Amino acid sequence: MLCGPIAGGVLATFFGFRVTFLIASLLLLIVFGLSWYFVQENFKPLKKTEKVAGIKQTILEQMNPHNLLLAFFITMLIQATNNAVNPMLSLYLSTMLHNNSSLALISGIISALPGIATVISAAALGHLGDEWGQKKVLLYAFSLGMLTYLIQGFATHIWLFAGLRFLTGFSIAALLPAVQSLLTRETKPQALGRIFSYNQTFQALGNVLGVMFGSIVAAKLGYHSMFLFIVLLEAAGLLFSIFIQKTPTRADIKLSKSNIK
């Protein structure tokens, strides 16, 4: 999210797109080798006599199935909003830069700006999630995302657009950790793998739907309408977040521990 877009933009500018793909393939091969030889896992497979509960039963057995289902759909919307703009970013920037020879490099830098904001703010926003509860963080983050995407759709200057992309990174930095924390708190330890795999399915679905519908809207109605479409997705995420049942804050956890003592 940070190094990838910048490195990709630099490589594409100086060496062309073909070399960029070759280097990306080489990096994936290196990751495969490192994972194969150095990652250790204490895995105990289920016995043949043991049966794994189905999807519906697994969700219903958790502490708060209502929040889990909302978290799945919120994850899908987060990924849809994050990926709807990415395929169109270079084309949208070309309308501001007017055939600039450094378009690939500038696009890579602007694509990395949300990642920079995430690196800066992720730890602090995670702390706020523990203090305020994840629901409040989701509400504020979706509201910020709606505002920044709305203005991006009407930005005419490259530096204004870059600043808004940077601000969008603060929203992204808050959203996914809040959802993951919510999933962890509402899931029994023995079902964490299954619940996170279900969430991964919704995440992949969001990737597909965001890119597909974002591209369709941009092609049929223009780039400005694409950003309005993203604002609607953010609004849907905000609506889902409103219905999340209260999540415990750090103060609530301390109070419950003191009551136990």
TrEMBL record:
Does the record bear Transport in its keywords?
yes
Q: Which residues form the signal peptide?
A: none
Q: Where in the cell is it found?
A: Cell membrane
Residue intervals of the Major facilitator superfamily (MFS) profile domain: 68-261
**What keyword terms does UniProt attach to this protein?**
Cell membrane, Membrane, Transmembrane, Transmembrane helix, Transport
A Pfam family that this protein carries is: MFS_1
| Membrane topology recorded in Swiss-Prot or TrEMBL | Multi-pass membrane protein
Transmembrane domains' residue ranges: 15-39, 68-85, 105-125, 137-160, 166-183, 204-221, 227-244
Name the Gene Ontology molecular function terms of this record.
transmembrane transporter activity
Q: Which GO terms describe its cellular component?
A: plasma membrane
InterPro entries registered for this protein in UniProt: MFS, MFS_dom, MFS_trans_sf
Provide the protein name: Major facilitator superfamily (MFS) profile domain-containing protein
